[in-house]
Amino acid sequence: MTLKFNLPIDLSRLQNDRLRLVPLEDNLDEWAEAYVEDANRNPQVYDWLTYGPFANGAEYASWYNDNSRGDANELLLAILLKTGSVTRKDPVTGETTITEVADGTFAGLCGLVSQPERATADMGQLLISRFQRTFVGTNANALLLHYCLDSVAEGGLGLRRVQWQANASNVASVNAAKRLGFQWEGIIRWQQILPIGKIGSEGAGLDREGLPTVGWDGREWGPGRHTAMLSVCWEDWVGGGREHVDALVIR
């Protein structure tokens, strides 16, 4: 399959001894079904997304084909586990569970939005349900950071900046970025209009007096999103960021 993504992708660089990242289009129908089945058991994963929920994999695949497929700026990747065990500690009860997984077990999604003319990429679309609070998210993000920020001589893309954008009220996402070494840059106010029913940022809800709620085309507007902006830039990466991420992966 020939990807339309506007940055070169070397899939051999997007794997380690615990998981690999593969273009979602390689097996869209099966992985879409696995994602929706898992997400619908944990519907809170949709709270901060600008789309969904989905009734089934076919509905998600249709959404993907209409909104992402063929967009050269976007790359959505399936996270596939390699044979081994996954340890998860419940944050409430403290109970630890160990799950044995087979090679190719679908664990979630992650992705990049590229701005090649700016030597910049956004990391996003990290959707993990069953394997939240395990090594999966850290390892997937580490692979993407290495690929984006390692020099061309080291096998990476040699970008100058990787961004992380999140709903400013999504504390978990902001903290996850900070844990990876992303630097806080500030809030972009009213950066998005969200679909009706989605969670707006604090202070950007529909209860604001006088807030425009209907567009020029008659379309009803949902709540607003203030966006938290964080980044890892090349000087952060070569100045200790790479070693910081590698230490997280080893834990």
Automatic annotation (TrEMBL):
Short name of any one Pfam family annotated for the protein: Acetyltransf_3
Q: Which InterPro entries match?
A: Acyl_CoA_acyltransferase, GNAT_dom, Ribosomal_N-acetyltransferase
Q: Which residues form the N-acetyltransferase domain?
A: 18-183
Task: Tell me the superkingdom of the source.
Answer: Eukaryota
Tell me which Gene3D superfamilies the record gives: 3.40.630.30
Keyword annotations for this protein, in alphabetical order, are:
Transferase
Annotated Gene Ontology MF terms? protein N-terminal-serine acetyltransferase activity; protein-N-terminal-alanine acetyltransferase activity
Question: In the UniProt record, does the keyword Transferase occur?
Answer: yes
- Indicate what this protein is called per its UniProt record: Putative GNAT family acetyltransferase
* Taxon lineage: Eukaryota, Fungi, Dikarya, Ascomycota, Pezizomycotina
